[in-house]
Design brief:
The protein is an all-alpha fold and about 240 residues long. It is about 70% helix and about 0% strand. The chain has one domain (about 5-230). The chain has a two-stranded antiparallel ribbon with strand order 1-2. Strand 1 (about 45) and strand 2 form a beta hairpin. Helix 5 packs antiparallel against helix 11.
């Protein structure tokens, strides 16, 4: 049985910083590119204009994934949260992580409602496309909840040995992609943008989907190589 203690003992502390220069640089480029594609309009929702909603959506995504990168690396290599919070560490992490996760689609929906109708193409196609994209997203969320589990999705294998030694999940959406959370769940953002017929929401869906893959390649992928070896884990 492999343990996180053994992994830490055999892994250099420089791994904490692996991929993070690339993370920062790509995040900066994605943010600049996203800003350049946004279109100001006179729409508003709950008293906030389209661009305010858009700026907050981008900021929350950036803050969320930077926090995840910092926590994952410090926990995996130094056991920081488990040293501080012991057996409650994953619950504490969930209390930090989940509000950000839930806030991201809600903020994008705010953009979509404020910017509704700005996407200049056939409305029927938008609605059909939106529904079709929400279906795989919902299926993937169901697969995560039923087969993968919230604790594991929170990065439990960075925290406790019981997650580290679980078998790979090959059911539901994970049967078709070991990266089901990143591959399929984020289609839901695209679907929401199309249902709203919003150009700006569509741009932000692209930003968020691209940025989650930056997290995978710069942070979580390297972590999985340390924990499981190359190509041996659900991501």
């Amino acid at each position: 049985m492999r343990t996180l203690e053994d992994i830490r003992a055999n892994t250099g502390k420089t791994e904490i910083f692996r991929g993070q220069i690339q993370h920062i640089m790509i995040a900066a480029l994605l943010t600049a590119g996203t800003y350049s594609l946004l279109r100001g309009s006179g729409g508003s929702f709950l008293g906030f204009g389209v661009m305010k909603w858009a700026y907050v959506t981008i900021a929350v995504a950036l803050i969320h994934q930077i926090i995840v990168a910092v926590v994952f690396r410090l926990q995996l290599h130094l056991g920081l949260l488990t040293r501080i919070f012991g057996k409650h560490a994953l619950k504490v992490w969930g209390a930090i992580f989940l509000p950000f996760l839930l806030g991201r689609p809600l903020l994008l929906l705010g953009v979509g409602v404020a910017d509704m109708g700005s996407l200049e193409c056939n409305r029927v196609l938008q609605l059909v496309g939106g529904v079709l994209l929400l279906l795989p997203a919902g299926w993937a969320v169901h697969s995560v909840l039923r087969y993968f589990g919230i604790g594991r999705a929170l990065g439990g294998d960075h925290f406790f040995d019981r997650f580290l030694n679980m078998p790979l999940v090959k059911k539901g959406a994970f049967r078709y992609s070991s990266n089901a959370m990143y591959s399929f769940v984020f289609f839901g953002l695209w679907g929401m943008a199309l249902l709203c017929g919003s150009w700006n929401a569509l741009v932000l869906a692209l930003f968020q989907h691209a940025y989650i893959w930056v997290h995978m390649y710069c942070t979580e992928g390297p972590d999985m190589e340390v924990i499981y070896g190359r190509g041996q884990a659900n991501l």
